[in-house]
């Protein structure tokens, strides 16, 4: 009987021991899995942001305008008097031409025939006019002997005068037909370059149709329109900083002329700057940026433009203060390149300004700011290169 009980007790003991081991192992695994769980709310953790230090800089107010570079001379080469088919076009864009070089020719056989016809008529009428003049002179010489009447002499003189008038009119017609014939050979009016070719041989052209466009780039004009409130800031002789977009160049030039009135529709005044370019390196009909300094420089605090939300003359920034994001509104003095200049009374120099991550911040949030390098001079240079 004792053996039977002992035999039955061993399996039960093993079962109890295994169960206890499982409980201990489960507790260990649960403790291990829950030991790394963060029980602090995410909203209570400091938000990671990037920040830079504001810099003290003097701000020079300026105006920026967009202008167009135009050639000093340009011409649309085409017929002015005749309508005809184009026979030849001897130039392509980029070709250099001299004054008097043939640009294109037209098929003007009809105009040439009419010109020759008028010329023959003029020669015939010239002979008739000379004969009538001589006859009138002879008849007038017979008046002293009473061989002819005064009325007959007057008729002969009137006939000679009429033929002279007809000859004059015919010569004017001949000059007109000669101009039409000359209009069939289109020549360059000045030294320059072919900017565009609009028509190929075989096309039919009429007066006013452009076959090719000729430009002279040895002297170009930068034309810009400025608002009427800036009229006094763009007086002739004022220096202007230019950035030629297509040529990727920066230079300084002076205002050559200013319109005495503004456009009634746009309320803008036109200014022009003359640029000499003997090498013809500036492409025309391209864009130029104009920058003019106005007023005096004032003390300011410079911050990245990406660190603020600007609305009119106010900007909203987040300042790092003892691990807290403090929302601050400051007065905007101006903007140049990628730099925003604000009133130092509202934002002191060397203050830490949040740049990356500010879109997720609210006033009073706890933050962990990582300071990074920043320079307004480097930002301005980078913006100018772009």
Short account of what is shown:
With 386 residues, the chain is an alpha+beta fold.
List descriptors.
conserved putative lor/sdh protein from methanococcus maripaludis s2 fold; Elongation Factor Tu (Ef-tu), domain 3; single chain; 9-stranded antiparallel beta sheet; 6-stranded antiparallel beta sheet; alpha+beta; 386 residues; 22 strands
Structural commentary:
By secondary structure, the protein is α+β, with helices and mostly antiparallel strands. Among the domains are: 48-58 and 299-385, Beta Barrel (conserved putative lor/sdh protein from methanococcus maripaludis s2 fold), CATH 2.40.420; 66-71 and 214-293, Beta Barrel (Elongation Factor Tu (Ef-tu), domain 3); 109-182. The chain has four helices and 22 strands. It has helices spanning 2-35, 109-141, 150-182, 376-385; strands at residues 47-53, 55-59, 62-77, 84-89, 96-97, 102-106, 185-187, 192-197, 204-205, 212-227, 239-244, 249-254, 257-258, 268-276, 286-293, 298-304, 309-311, 314-321, 324-336, 339-342, 352-354, 367-371. A hairpin with a 2-residue loop joins strand 18 and strand 19. The relative contact order is 0.19.
